[in-house]
Structures are given as C-alpha cells and as structure tokens.
Write a structure and sequence with these properties.
It is found in: Cytoplasm; Cell membrane. One of its GO terms (biological process) is ribosomal small subunit assembly. Belongs to the TRAFAC class TrmE-Era-EngA-EngB-Septin-like GTPase superfamily. Era GTPase family. InterPro entries: G_ERA_dom, GTP-bd, GTPase_Era-like, KH_dom-like_a/b, KH_dom_type_2, KH_sf_prok-type, P-loop_NTPase, Small_GTP-bd. This protein has 300 residues and is of the alpha/beta class. The chain folds into two domains: 165 residues, 3-Layer(aba) Sandwich (Rossmann fold); 105 residues, 2-Layer Sandwich (GMP Synthetase, Chain A, domain 3). The protein is built from nine helices and nine strands. The strands form two sheets. It has a six-stranded mixed β-sheet, with helices on both faces. It has a three-stranded mixed β-sheet with strand order 7-8-9. The protein is globular, with a radius of gyration of 20 Å. The structure holds guanosine-5'-triphosphate. The site of guanosine-5'-triphosphate has 24 residues, from helix 1.
Length: 300
C-alpha cells in the first residue's frame, strides 16, 4: 500500500479592522472558532483556526485588525498580528471594498509590499459590493503590491470561498499535520467561552459599551453529571458602564448570559451553567495578568 502524502501550512489573514477576517476563518474552518461583530477590533489575541481540505491541513492565523497603535493594548494587538504573518506559506490581505478607508489600508500596503511571503488579495463582501468599484480597487492594490492571486468572495454567505480554499490548499507544502484531525482551533474551551460572552456583550450593547471592556475566565468546572460550570468576570472601566451591562433590574446581564449559555452548550455539546459577574476596574487595561489571560504580550 502506498502511503498518502499529507500537506500542512500556515495562512495568515491580515486586514483592516472589520474587514471580515474572523468571518472568513470561520467559513474556511467550517465552524465557529472566532467571534465576529459589527464593532471594529473584536479580535484581540492571535488565534489559530484549523481548516482541512482533503489531505491538507491549513493553520489559519486570524489576526487582530491592524491600525495605528497608541495604547499598550493596541500595540500588543498589532504585534500579535505581525507575528502571525511571519513565515506563513501565504498571507491573505482581506479588504472590505465598501467600508475600507484609505488611512487604514495605507499602513497595511506599506508593511506588506516588501514582505517575502506569498501574498494573495481577497476582496470580501461581494454579496453587497458593486462590481465596478470592486474591480477598480483590485487593480489599484495590484499596482502597489505584487499579489500572486486575487479572489472575490463573501465570507458571510460563503460565495467564492470553496474555490479559494482549494487554491490555498494547493499552495501548502508537503508535511505532517500539526494538529489532530478533529481540532478546529488552538483556543482552549475556557478561553473560547469568554470570547462567546464578549461577542454577546458587543451584540447586545452595540455602541453603548466601549471597547475598553474585557471578559476574564474565573472558574471552569466539569461536573460529574456531564455538565460544565463556568464562572466569568466582565470588567469595565467605570461604574456607569457597569450599570449598562447590568441593565434595568439585571435584565441585560441576564439576557447576555442566556444567549451565551445557549451558544456555548451547542459548541461544547454539553449542558452549561454560566455565572457572570460584573466588576469595575478603571485600570484593567494596565493589568499584566489580564493581558496574559487574553493571550497578549505585555512587554510590547
Ligand atoms: N455583507 C457581508 N458582511 C460581512 C462579510 N464578511 C463579514 N461581514 C460582516 O462584517 C463585520 C465584521 O466581520 P468580522 O469577521 O468580525 O471582522 P474582523 O475583520 O474579524 O474584525 P476585527 O475583529 O475588528 O479585526 C461583521 O458584522 C460581519 O458579519 C461579507 O462577506 N458580507
């Protein structure tokens, strides 16, 4: 019997905030591994999504949107993004043709153009974008960066994604798989659980909740009856934000907890008991321990 050769490689997904990177990674993996939201900069730490295609395993690095960093949290996010791109077998530049802003794209173009990795341009949101500006943008970017390929996709509907996935798989070098066949991400269930709560916070509070909030894992207990008990702390900077998260008579936090619990039960395939606590800590974004819990590097 001839042994079948496997392929394995790294694909970095780079793009401005809100371009749809997490949505694309979820689509390529075939299940939700990264949270998404209409609020920019939802993705914080670098995370891996693991996609399979035939005998090929692709390790997708979903990077936080790159922007001009000022605060420590932002700087840590940006450096996590570039570390993700290093030594990748392909770097995907994902662009939202509708909302892309010049000042967000420029630094990306500058940083990418001389990099040695194979670069692929992916124009996203074809489900809502008009064809003419889409082609013009592809041409404009193609003049600045040497892309080996260009794809037009909708990460949301999946349109164009299978063709792109096939092409990416073909680029991956021969080698053993780095992760077991059934593993879809490198994020622990404990951390994924906090991300699901954070997604609900964003979805239910929209612009009311500033970007300065975090969800920390407190306890994660597997119960003997097959269910899991999860305790998390929602940290905000100010007391009025705490009141917003709690809502009238605790109604908002209840609804956030309920939605997060339902989604987690489905993802984990077991019954979930979720306990959320809201805490005000105006200095959390200067807290080393919290940074490390979120998988970010404090020293940047
Ligand atoms: N119509 C449409 N919307 C999309 C598409 N892809 C992503 N979106 C939406 O765009 C928003 C941003 O998507 P995300 O996947 O969170 O974007 P991101 O690039 O990971 O964002 P950051 O975490 O801020 O870096 C969400 O509301 C998505 O539902 C698409 O192909 N079509």
């Amino acid at each position: 019997m001839t042994e079948q050769k496997t392929h394995c490689g790294l694909v970095a997904v780079i793009g401005a905030p809100n371009a749809g990177k997490s949505t694309l990674v979820n689509q390529l993996v075939g299940q939700k591994v990264a949270i998404t939201s209409a609020k920019a900069q939802t993705t914080r730490a670098r995370m891996l999504g693991i996609a399979l295609h035939g005998d090929t395993q692709m390790i997708l690095v979903d990077t936080p949107g790159i922007f001009a960093p000022k605060r420590r949290l932002d700087r840590a996010m940006v450096s996590a993004a570039w570390e993700g791109a290093e030594s990748a077998d392909a770097v995907l530049l994902l662009v939202d043709p509708i909302k892309q802003r010049r000042h967000e794209l420029e630094p990306l173009v500058e940083a990418l153009k001389d990099r040695p990795e194979r670069k692929i341009l992916v124009l996203n949101k074809v489900d809502i974008a008009k064809k003419e500006p889409l082609l013009a943008l592809a041409q404009e970017l193609g003049e600045k960066i040497e892309f080996s390929e260009v794809y037009f996709v909708s990460a949301l509907t999946g349109d164009g994604v299978p063709e792109m996935k096939q092409a990416l798989a073909d680029l991956m070098p021969e080698g053993p798989w780095m992760y077991p066949e059934d593993q879809v991400s490198d994020v622990s269930e404990r951390l994924l659980a906090t991300e699901i709560t954070r997604e609900q916070l964003y979805q239910q509070l929209h612009e009311e909740l500033p970007y300065d909030s975090a969800v920390r894992p407190e306890k994660y207990i597997q119960r003997k009856d097959g269910s899991v008990e999860i305790h998390q702390q929602i940290v905000v900077m100010r007391d009025n934000q705490r009141m917003i998260v709690l809502g009238k008579g605790g109604s908002r936090i209840k609804s956030i907890g309920q939605a997060a619990r339902e989604e987690l039960s489905e993802l984990l395939g077991q019954k979930v008991h979720l306990f959320l606590h809201v805490k005000t800590d105006e200095r959390w974004s200067e807290d080393k321990e919290m940074f490390e819990e979120m998988g970010l590097d404090w020293t940047r």
